Amino acid sequence: MRQGAVSIRVVNREDTAAPSPAEKAEAVRVQRLREDAKRPISVNLEETIALSHKLMRFAGSARKS
Q: Per residue of the chain (65 residues), what is the pLDDT tens digit?
């Protein structure tokens, strides 16, 4: 194909099939990452620290049992 030429593609029914669960999950993950990237770093850091504390408590509880 020469430079600047437009490519025309025939659309099959298979091309319009619903996305798989894995594709849907990936789309959600990417959307959440984009939303997180728009927030101030202090908010993301605060949530990370809170999650870290929660995981430490969970790990401590698991060791005691």
A: 556 667 777 666 565 688 999 999 999 999 999 999 999 999 999 999 999 999 999 998 878 76
Max distance between CA atoms of the chain, in angstroms, equals 69
* Single-letter code of the amino acid located at 10: V
Residue found under tokens 């798989």:
20
Query: SS3 string of 4-61?
Result: CCCCCCCCCHHHHCCCCHHHHHHHHHHHHHHHHHHCCHHHHHHHHHHHHHHHHHHHHH
Query: Shortest CA distance to 36 belongs to which of 27, 25, 24, 45?
Result: 45
Integer Cα distance of 50 and 47 in angstroms? 5
